[in-house]
Every structure is written in structure tokens, then in C-alpha cells.
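Intended use. Records like the one below are meant for learning the mapping from a protein sequence to its folded structure. Do not use them to infer anything beyond what is encoded.
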Amino acid sequence: MIGEKLQHFNKVLIDCDPGIDDCFALLLAMKHLEVVGITTVGGNTGLVNTSRNACYVTELAKRTDIPVYAGYDKPMFTQLETAEEVHGTTGLGTMQIKEPNKRPEKEHAVDVIIDTFMNHDDILLVTLGPLTNVAQAILKEPRLKKRIPQILCMGGSVTTGNYSPCAEFNIYVDPEAAKIVFDSGIVIKMAGLNFTRQNSMTVQDVQILKDMNNNIAQFAAQLLSFSVNSDRQAELCDACAISWLIDPNIVSCSLPMHVDIETKGEFTRGMTVCDYREYIGTDPKIKNVIVAMEFDQNRFKKLLFDTIKSYGK
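Structure written out for the chain above:
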């Protein structure tokens, strides 16, 4: 059973595409987990911006010791489709930031993923964007299928999508890469839209951040204000996903099931086809993913606000 293979990890390598919600996720991770590195991918915006934003957030949090590595700027077989209407042109809403002194390291993200997991047994891989870097690493070094002990993936959905009726953005951007990863045999914990949509940030939450007297909180307030004022439900999907690692009780229900990635459908490309028929009496395929189902919003918000407040101490 896949659930019997689950382990607890405090060390993480985070592959991401910052992005407003990625920034919140990184702020949580840098306080509560041992982040051994950050790899970036084109997704919410282009690679130049996602890499710069990752450097900026680590610098703002005074964690320039965490290395940042740039990866692929486009999916495996198609052109990159971004979500700038959700995250702003640069990925940070309308914020104009000072160019960070920190720069990405010279190594490519794919090589860093390979080196990290071929040489360590105690690190978890967190993916918060399209899975291009991870799939390319598996293709380059197939032994990673046996070396990556677990992946926490923000992506997919048991129910409806956001980029299309069926597909969540991270999976839609590069479904071929997602298929390679989900079919790899690596233990995956999936925090999809069905889970993150149980969170909703509001203008009142923006004010709570504004009332905190530290620069991280002011940065977070500006980011969240952009999302809330864009008349969208600000779910902070990536932060919800990373919170599962920090406080497992934030996920009040998760289920093992088989998840396939649709790569060819006219209307369903990028869909995570979640087979949980066993729960209605029909045997499904072999379970390959643990899927988050129920979310404790109050517990999450307390973790988020306590963490951001702690940056002022």
C-alpha cells in the first residue's frame, strides 16, 4: 500500500515558479523546514522572473544561504503558457521591486535535482509549478525513480480545473512532464485544487498582514492585496500545499488512489484522472498517489499569520 511508504521529512528541495502563492509557500518553508535548495521553472511567468523572484524572497527573508538554480523556461513539447493575469507580469502582482543582489547559481536545476537525490536519502522533493524540471531529471537519470523517496506536488484536481474546465494550471502547462512523474513509481502526495479551494483569503486577511510591523508582512500584504483586488478567490494554493508538511493536521482527510495524466484529450488535456472507485465498491488500478481531500482553513491561517509575524522578531 502506498500509504505504508510515507515518511516524514524536514529537509526539502523546492521546485517552483514564483508567483504570488509560491512566495507565501517559500516564506512558510524557510521558517519551518530545512530548505536545501530552490529550483525554478517557467510557469506562472517566465524563467527570468521566477528565478529573480525566488532570489528576492530569500534575500528579503535573510536566507541568502539557500541556493537558487534556474531550470527550464518552456514545457517539453509546447510553448509556455503563463498565468500573468493571476500573478502579474513579473509574478509579483504590480509590485516594483529592487533587483536582488542574490543571483541563481551556475548549475542547471535538472543537474541539481539529480545530484541531490542520487547522493542523499533524507530529502523530500516539493513541486509547486509545472513538472518540467523533474521529468527532465528522470529522463536524464532514470535511477531517480528509486532515489526520490517522496514528492509533495501542488497540482491537479480530483474535481474541476482552473486553466480549463478539467485541468489545473501546473499540470496543464506540461502534461507530458506530469505523466512521466506520476507514472514513475515515486510516492506522490498531491495537493490539488479540490483541496486548496477550501481556503479563501479576504480583504480582512490583507489588513491583518498590514497591521504586522515587519517588512515580510508588508510584502505579503501587497501580494495578497493584488490577488484579492483582482476579484479572484485568493487561495494561496502553494502555501496550502507546503503547510501539509509543516502541520499534517491541516489535511483532515487524504485518500490513496490511482491518478493518470491526460495528454491527448481535445477538452481534457492536462486533467488528473483520479480513480477512487474503490470507495464506491469498484476496484481501481494500483494506487500511486495520496490525494489531499479535506482542509482545515482556520488551522492554516493561524500557521500562516503566526509565521509571517515571526519574521518581525
